[in-house]
Amino acid sequence: MINAAASVVASIPSPSISYFDIGPLRIHIYALCIIAGIIVAVLWTNARLTKRGAEPWVVIDIALLAVPLAIICARIYHVLTHWGFYFGEGANPLSALYIWEGGIAIYGALIGGAVGAWLGCKWTGIRFWTFADALAPALLLAQAMGRFGNWFNQELFGWPTDVPWGLEIDYPNPAWPVGLPEGTLFQPTFLYEVIWNLLGVLVIVWVGRRFRLQWGRLFAVYLVWYSAGRIVWESIRIDPSEIILGLRSNVWAAILGVVLGIVIFFVQKRRHPGLEPSPYVSGREWTAGQAVQSQNTDDFVDVSEPPTSEAVGATATSTPASK
């Protein structure tokens, strides 16, 4: 047993509240973190799609389907992989609906969000892979923001530790491991994932700009990056989880995410060696003025930066294919 109070000099305190009340309305900070992440992702994805030549705010039409399906599937995935919590002996099955108490899974969100995004792209005429590439860094940033909700909820922490950045958890706590003494510190897995995700945002933006990855290959980089980190963080978490062949279910999901990302990257590279002619499928192009005329084949560079001469040259050489 590790008594952190005696063995470390510093630690990371957990917030003392996880919600606040406004009149009869209870606001959960976990939910605010998720909502803030969604808003930021929508705004940034809109900027990236617009720079690519899409109609401004077409991302809203896609999000109207993608976001609800992502949240629903994220909750379903969590419940299925923690079945005993909700349907085991002495459990309250109705608590499976209490999403405000925490418990959504990113891989479930990716599945539901992908289905919703595909439907939204069919609706709007946007290429699905163009949308996915525009979303990639914004999604990783949103995930980093969402992890702060776990911090406020004092959940999903890792092994006991005596490192200076150990995480303080209130005692008693429903998530407290049986047998560990009060004062034990834990690995702050939420913080590890936040740092990894923010670093991944920089990597994805740089890779997209440097190599002009399109046709879903930038999203493939996201899948590999996020999932590779998730294998590590998930492996040191101590919250209960379904174990399959000696590994937590989410570790298997992360392994699948890495494999899927690699497959998407190389299959799409082989199928589409050139640049996308347009963010729209053929026949569905947006024709409202000069925005379409200025389509930029440089892969979603920061909207605050003017296109480089190299990018302009690339646009010129790809113009016949875009007509």
From TrEMBL:
Function, as annotated: Catalyzes the transfer of the diacylglyceryl group from phosphatidylglycerol to the sulfhydryl group of the N-terminal cysteine of a prolipoprotein, the first step in the formation of mature lipoproteins.
Full protein name: Phosphatidylglycerol--prolipoprotein diacylglyceryl transferase
Cross-referenced PROSITE patterns: LGT
Cellular localisation: Cell membrane
Domain of life the protein comes from: Bacteria
Stored InterPro entries: Lgt (IPR001640)
Biological pathway: Protein modification; lipoprotein biosynthesis (diacylglyceryl transfer)
Keywords, sorted A to Z: Cell membrane, Glycosyltransferase, Membrane, Transferase, Transmembrane, Transmembrane helix
Primary location recorded for the protein, binned into one broad class: membrane
Family: Belongs to the Lgt family.
UniProt GO molecular function: glycosyltransferase activity
Keyword Acyltransferase tagged: no
E.C. numbers: 2.5.1.145
Gene: lgt
Pfam families for this protein: LGT
UniProt-annotated binding residues for a 1,2-diacyl-sn-glycero-3-phospho-(1'-sn-glycerol): 147
Region of interest called Disordered, as start-end residue ranges on this chain: 288-323
UniProt KW Transmembrane keyword: yes
Membrane topology of the entry: Multi-pass membrane protein
